[in-house]
Target: 6-phosphogluconate dehydrogenase, decarboxylating
Amino acid sequence: ARANIGVVGLAVMGSNLARNLASREGNTVAVHNRTYARTEQLVTEHPEAGFVPSESIDDFVASLAKPRTAIIMVQAGKGTDAVIDQLAERFEPGDIIVDGGNANFQDTIAREQRIAPTGIHFVGAGISGGEEGALHGPSIMPGGSAESYETLGPILASIAAVAEGEPCVTHVGTDGAGHFVKMIHNGIEYADMQLIAEAFDLLRTVGGLEPAAIADVFAEWNRGPLESYLIEITAEVLRHVDAATGKPFVDVVLDQAGSKGTGVWTVQNALDLGVPVGGIAEAVFARAVSGKQAQREAVRRVVASRPQPQRVDASFADEVAKALYASKVVAYAQGFDMITAGARKYGWDIRKDRIAKIWRGGCIIRAQFLNRIAEAYDEDPDVATLLEAPYFAQAVADGERAWRRVVATAAQSGVPVPGFGAALSYYDSLAVERLPAALVQAQRDYFGAHTYQRVDRPGTFHTQWSGDRTESEVPGH
Ligand code: 6PG
Model:
């Protein structure tokens, strides 16, 4: 046994992760793939890595020093279970199986339960940062037992991205906690991307700027509070010109956004947890709308004329920046609320300040901004919402007028802003003294005797809507 860590599944993510591991002092990396040709190719192409290749799973397991630690990097789903079973049959108590794929956290909980009686540790680890991240330093969100993290933690820390001197990895919590937090990361990723896209649409349709000029605006934003990887790559995408047509690249891409499903999981679970994540949900729906060609064409056919874009002045770009920032704060507040709710439901002890910190580097949503979130949760782990934390309360207050103007301008100009709009409505829902939920509850009592509570005294009540409309107190509530 020569290797302290093994990787099973050598497609791009697995290969890159294996190379990253091999490049770090102290690691010897065993590699295995279902088809051996892939393993041979990797080993031949990267002699510097000193990989320990195995054609059979038996040899792979034998090549690992104890406690054996193997990271599975195969397509999430059935393939994962097959590899887990192969390893579990050969591993011994104390050994560690890590699933580094984008697994559904519910599957991870079930797999951990299935493996736990064998004494083998099962770890679901969210890994963010795409192919480049896997190779040069991802953000890693491992779940699983604290004991397994003693072995695994230093290995993961050796390959993770580094943000302000700290490796972007932390023990998130038991069983599915790591994949749950990765799911939230992706939900926020969807929201971030949608908000940036809406900002682009406003700057172009209302602001009248061409993509290259908008690239400059985004590059400028990237030097301020909006600094982030996604803003940075957006500037690059907008500057890019299509070689075949000479048009801005963004204009030759079909306006239809795909998804592999993690954003959908976020919203499905938000509904189950009862956490309002409208900013994230609208981002998921916006991708869905973009694919509804039949409906889009049908409505375009019946619409006689579209509104003229409103006239705006030179300060418009700054206002859009403020609207973007405030909407982004809402999306993150919603994502972190969901972490709180998930932790409560599934019994995880999740340090939200640490999650914010490991998202500062390596992952798709990496940004300086995460420092502010880390500070907020560090100061008060029980803050009811990020919107209450002093820094964010002030930031939103500073941007509020611009935010409202931008959403109003969008509505009058006919520019769809589901992300900006949902974020602002969410903020107003929390900020307003009284919600029209009073009327909804009254309607429920009218047609279904669902009862209501009063503002002026305790108890549960029902009004005889079909009779003389007297009110009675409902006992036993
Ligand atoms: C990451 C990304 C990564 C991947 C998503 C994209 O953190 O590295 O989130 O996991 O890019 O699968 O998701 P969609 O295909 O759903 O956009």
